[in-house]
Amino acid sequence: MTALDDIYADYELLDADDRYRLLIDLGRTLEPMPDALKTDATLVRGCSAAVWVYPMPREDGRLHFLADSNAAITKGIIALVLTTVQDRTAEEILATDIEGALAPFDLKNQLSSNRTQGIPNMIALIRQTAERLRG
């Protein structure tokens, strides 16, 4: 089972309020992102809350992402998105069906449209980064 499968196994058993709490708790697991990296260049456009994503290419060719948000639930959403791509190569990221991996969570029906409108932009930024850094 992948980490995403583990998260979903818990998520599907919860009611709406507890699902919010699970996402918020997931956001708390993100490693801290230094304020110096929270710039206009790392800001995800089109999100109702501020979301920053910063790629850190590793020596082994994998990409590690730092991310943060000024809203707890949005921070949980970006943590969920990153679970699908964290520490993978650019090629693996580009081959990953991120939307498909997240589909079982049915976020559009679980959260307000304000909360979910930025998800495609988060995914697009990750894919653009992988494309740019593909070796």
Automatic annotation (TrEMBL):
Segments forming domain Fe-S metabolism associated: 15-128
Protein name, UniProt field: SufE family protein
Gene3D superfamilies: 3.90.1010.10
Entries under InterPro entries matching the protein: Fe-S_metab-assoc_dom
Family: Belongs to the SufE family.
